């Protein structure tokens, strides 16, 4: 683990990011106190259909809601 001050981090950000990409952890400090960590990104796989069989709804969920219609378009029943 390497520690750098803010000025050094701003000046050499590209170099620091290359080191982080290789697996190194870098701590950015201000006045000698750690304030941030540069760590390698760990991607999370996306699973589509993860709630299949656990989430249920009926077709009425897609019906037009008159209250919401009124908020967007005004009261359509009022005389002009």
Word description of this protein:
- The protein starts with a strand and ends in a 7-residue tail after the last helix.
- The model has no long low-confidence stretch (mean pLDDT 90).
- The chain contains 3 helices and 3 strands; from the N terminus they run E-H-H-E-E-H.
- It is an alpha+beta fold and 80 residues long.
- The longest helix has 9 residues, at 13-21.
- It is elongated.
- Strands 1-2-3 form a 3-stranded mixed β-sheet.
- The chain has helices at residues 6-11, 13-21, 66-73, and strands at residues 2-5, 26-30, 33-38.
- The relative contact order is 0.13.
Distance between the termini: 72 Å
Element string (H = helix, E = strand): EHHEEH
Main-sheet strand order equals: 1-2-3
User: Percent of residues in helical segments?
Assistant: 25-40%
Count of distinct strands: 3
Beta-strand content estimate: 15-25%
Low-confidence stretches: none
Average pLDDT, to the nearest integer?
90
Largest beta-sheet details: 3 strands, mixed
**Overall morphology:** elongated
Oligomer: single chain
Q: From the alpha-carbon coordinates, what is the Rg to the nearest angstrom? A: 26 Å
Individual helix count? 3
Q: Which structural class fits the helix and strand makeup?
A: alpha+beta
